[in-house]
Amino acid sequence: MRFMILLKADQHSEAGELPDEKLLTEMGNFNDELIKAGVMLAGEGLHPSARGARVQFGKDGQVRVTDGPFTPLGGVLAGFWIWQLPSMEEAVAWVKRVPMPMAGGEAEIEIRQIFEMDDFGAAMSPELREQETRQRASLAEGAG
């Protein structure tokens, strides 16, 4: 199973405060552990939402773009990982080991399972499966 680990933003990350060398070292070491264990597939930190945009698609066909910053903070992300693990329980166990956050000492991390082709049942036709497989192979070639 693949999981997206969503690190929620706080007032410090949204203010553009960067982690210090100690936290960067701890996160680097944690990422090394994830990679050595075969868990981590990807992971990145995100700039504050003030540097982002939201695009909304209305029922009326209108497309609306809103520049950041975004509120409330609970819906804003500061970073993410993509992990591959056998269960949600193992994902939770790894998240509990994430190094303490910067500044305020409090953080919230959300864990979401990523859909796999089999989750879509009969709607994922053989043609769609082939397309998905081809796309993933193309992405893997580009990443190398």
How many strands, which pairing sense, and closed or not: the largest β-sheet?
Answer: 4 strands, antiparallel
The general outline is: globular
Query: What's the order of the H and E elements?
Result: EHHEEEEHEH
Mean pLDDT: 93
What does this structure look like?
The protein has 144 residues and is an alpha+beta fold. 32% of the residues lie in helices and 25% in strands. The chain has four helices and six strands, in the order E-H-H-E-E-E-E-H-E-H. Strands 2-5-1-6 form a four-stranded antiparallel sheet. The chain has a two-stranded antiparallel sheet with strand order 3-4. A hairpin with a 5-residue loop joins strand 3 and strand 4 (63-67). The two termini are 23 Å apart. The mean pLDDT is 93.
Notable features of this structure?
144 residues, alpha+beta, four-stranded antiparallel sheet, 25% strand, two-stranded antiparallel ribbon
